Amino acid sequence: MRKVFVAGHKGMVGSAILRQLKLKGDVELITRTSKELDLTDQKAVKDFFSSESIDEVYISAAKVGGIVANNTYPAEFIYENLMIECNVIHSAHQADVQNLLFLGSSCIYPKFASQPMGESALLTGVLEPTNEPYAIAKIAGIKLCESYNRQYGRDYRSVMPTNLYGPNDNFHPENSHVIPGLIRRFHEAKQQKFPAVVAWGSGKPMREFLYVDDMASASIYVMGLPTEVYDMNTEPMLSHINVGTGEDCSIRDLVETIATVVGYDGDISFDTSKPDGAPRKLMNVDRLKSLGWCASTSLEEGIASAYAWFLKNQKSYRMS
Fold first, then answer.
1. For residue 18, what is the domain's CATH number?
2. What pTM does this model have?
3. N or C: which end of the chain has fewer CB within 10 A?
4. Model confidence over 38-56: pLDDT tens digits?
5. How are beta strands 163-165 and 209-211 bridged, if at all?
6. 222: in domain
7. How confident is the model over 117-142, as a mean pLDDT?
8. Structural domain count of the chain
9. 173 located within any domain
10. pLDDT tens for residues 76-102?
11. Is 264 an active-site residue?
């Protein structure tokens, strides 16, 4: 029976990983809430690993947020994320944990990386300024895993997801990302019978979105690959793997899909005075496909599932 620690099991990604691991019969799950274990506290993390005989670790714990939060609290974003990954990875090594998976973010890639963004684009250009501190912390996590692998022969792997959404997402009206934010906006517009909803920008930018249960599936799949198979598909010093659908859609199409799923039948307009951001952000997922994994949830199916979860939990979970 493998003892598996999921760091960040209350978050969107961590909870999805936990749901899927519970279906396996050979896993004993270990979790701690942030109140039970402060992952930024080095001694507390070291003591935790010393007291538990852990075989595998999934690091989905992180301080996350949108553009406003990243711009307002850059010190917290770089400090807390660095401390979490440094403490967990180093303490896991000290406790002789051989297998670990670190979850990063597509923001590790340069602002002007060629599309679709392949793993080799890492460190080839400047980052997007609005989330640079967070991105640097995630790049450091990748390099921590690489360094422990090189020096100590560990099997610490990294996966970089595209934009995620789904159950346990943040539907806060100001701090949420695009899909949960639009789900809430169209839901409230339908309830209050607003005649129109205005979306920011031109609607032309292209974005890629991955349902969080697919992300969990990919994480467990990558963790379970035999070392020789994983290494065969990993260039030296390029140990991370992109996770996404390999397909994108326009923001206009996304907005219209969400409106349809929610059942909003009013007018939709686009405020072109608002910024569009990068024209396209798409992950190259050829490496993951070569390893035998592909996403299985369509955008409409995923949004419908996310909306169903929102309806069930809107009174109690990150809604105010």
1. 3.40.50.720
2. 0.94
3. C
4. 999 999 999 999 999 999 9
5. parallel
6. yes
7. 95
8. 1
9. no
10. 999 999 999 999 999 999 999 999 999
11. no
